[in-house]
Structure formats: structure tokens, C-alpha cells
Design brief:
Layout lengths: L1 E2 L5 H10 L6 H10 L1 E6 L5 E9 L4 E9 L8 H11 L6 E5 L5 H6 L3 E11 L14 E5 L5 H12 L4 H10 L2 E7 L4 E9 L3 E9 L2 H12 L5 E7 L3 H9 L3 E4 L2 E5 L11 E3 L7
Parallel strand pairs: 4-5, 10-11
Antiparallel strand pairs: 1-2, 2-3, 3-4, 5-13, 6-11, 6-12, 6-13, 7-8, 8-9, 9-10, 10-14
Helix pairs in contact: 2-6
Length: about 280
């Protein structure tokens, strides 16, 4: 088992593609900048497995990118790597992951339990469904460095942990970043779009209410001609209805699992779209 570094990114991209996942150089670079990636290599030096952990603070960490080449499955590689991720943080840290159907039994054996779900939505043909934003209650503007402290506070309340380091890298990676301000000039929501090799990912989306969240989606998705993806936490039913009216369709509902706790850190229900499944 190795701790992988940025020289291993091409091998990780190839491993990801072998299972139909779409990690690219930018995404893996962000993961390595804020987290740890472990893996195995075969005798030829090819990467045959991976797992990553992203620690946010001493409260929360997220595991993802757990992949084993199909020719090497059944040898306990995924278990060894996931355990290494677990061992890299303290027993007091809540560890979360979003499980695939295939991975869920392994995670249960390692002590993870399901606490909620996310809803994966895709759209091949986004159709704007305009909400009532004509009341001028909010304005949406490009995200700049001057907004970061307010953005970070919103995000911490939404996630239950300080993700400052991750957010700085994610904002640099973003195709577009926006904030929504109310009439007092306070930041009441933010959103990023990330251009991947297959989809434009909408997330994170954090907003004080449904109207602000839809305003952000309309701005980030407007005029985009390709495929869109957003992963929505459980409990945002009206937002999900809005997405379906815009041409999104749900393709899966994977479980969110945690270890070292019986629940996620307290959240204030303002998270409308996660950054990506690996980041929780």
C-alpha cells in the first residue's frame, strides 16, 4: 500500500475510467491538495486500487474514490485502504461516506451505518423554470475573495464543520462561482459549478431558503448546452420538485454512512447541493 502523490494522477484517472467513473486531473489535484489518497500498485507499477480521505477539521472527514480494479477484487484491497483512511483521523472524528451498492457491505463490516441519503440528478436538457425573483429581494453576483469569510460561515453551518481549506481549492477549480446578497448586503447563499469530463457539476449549493437556491441554479445552469449533475441531500423535497420541472431526473439514491458517531454533525438544512460524493 502506498500514499499516492500528484505523479500518480494519470494512473488514478485510468483506474477511475476502468470502472466508469469520471475523475479528471483537476478533481484529483483538489483531492490531493486537501486530503490523502492511498492505493496499491501491481508489479508493473500500475495503480490497481485507491481510497481517499478528506479531513475538514477535528469534527468531520469524508471518504471517497474507493476503487479496486476488477481483476484484483476479492483480495481485501478495498478494506485495507478504507481502514488506512479511518486510521488517519482520530476516533473522535465523525467519518462519512456516500456508498455505492457494491461497497455498502464492506463499509458495514467496518462499522459504518446509514444515517441519510443523497439524490443524484442528471439533466441532458436544462429548461429554466423561473421562480419569483422579480421582487428584487436578492441580487446574484460573481464570487470574489471579499465574500469568502461570509461564504465560509454559511458553509460551516450547512455542513457542520470548517471546510475553509477545501473551499479555497474548490473555488479555484470552479468554472463559475456566485453569491446571493439580500437588500442589506449580507451573503445569503453561494454556489459553484465545476466542469468535469462528462457533466457540469452544480455544487456546493448553500442557501438560506428554496428561493435563493433556485436563483443560484438558474444562474449557474443558464445557457449551458451539455449534461448537468447535482446531488441533493435528503429533506429538500420542494427543491427536488423544482429540479424535475427544469428537466432533471433522478438516477440513484445512495446512502450516506457514518462511523464514530450515530449521526452527522448538526446541520441547519441550508445545503441544497453537495460538492461531489467524495467531499460529502
Amino acid at each position: 500500500m502506498y500514499r499516492l502523490n500528484k505523479k500518480d494522477i494519470p494512473g488514478l484517472i485510468a483506474l477511475s475510467a476502468s470502472v466508469g467513473w469520471d475523475y479528471d486531473e483537476q478533481e484529483i489535484n483538489t483531492i490531493m491538495s486537501v486530503g490523502i489518497v492511498y492505493g496499491h500498485k501491481n508489479e508493473q507499477g500500475d495503480i490497481i486500487s485507491s481510497a481517499a480521505i478528506i479531513p475538514y477539521d477535528n469534527k468531520l472527514a469524508s471518504i471517497g474514490m474507493v476503487i479496486v480494479n476488477e481483476n484484483y477484487r476479492g483480495n481485501g484491497l478495498g478494506k485495507e485502504l478504507t481502514q488506512a483512511c479511518i486510521n488517519s483521523v482520530s476516533d473522535e472524528t465523525t467519518i462519512m461516506l456516500i456508498a455505492t451498492k457494491e461497497g455498502k457491505p464492506l463499509y458495514e463490516k467496518l462499522g459504518f451505518q446509514t444515517v441519510t441519503y443523497v439524490h443524484k440528478f442528471l439533466s441532458d436538457n436544462y429548461m429554466p423554470f423561473y421562480s419569483n425573483h422579480e421582487n428584487k429581494e436578492y441580487e446574484i453576483i460573481p464570487l470574489t475573495d471579499s465574500h469568502f469569510s461570509q461564504l465560509q460561515e454559511l458553509d460551516q453551518s450547512a455542513i457542520g464543520a470548517d471546510r475553509s481549506s477545501f473551499l479555497k481549492f474548490r473555488i479555484r477549480q470552479a468554472k463559475q462561482g456566485v453569491v446571493v446578497r439580500n437588500n442589506n448586503g449580507d451573503v445569503v447563499g453561494y454556489g459553484l459549478s465545476i466542469e468535469g469530463p462528462i457533466n457540469l457539476i452544480l455544487g456546493p449549493i448553500v442557501a438560506i431558503n428554496h428561493d435563493v437556491a433556485t436563483y443560484i441554479i438558474e444562474h449557474l445552469a443558464r445557457g449551458y448546452r451539455g449534461k448537468l449533475r447535482i446531488d441533493v441531500p435528503d429533506g429538500q423535497e420542494s427543491f427536488i420538485t423544482y429540479l424535475e420541472k427544469c428537466g432533471f431526473h433522478k438516477v440513484s439514491q445512495p446512502p450516506v454512512m457514518v462511523k464514530n458517531s450515530i449521526q452527522l454533525p448538526p446541520r441547519n438544512h441550508t445545503l441544497y447541493g453537495i460538492a461531489a460524493q467524495i467531499f460529502g
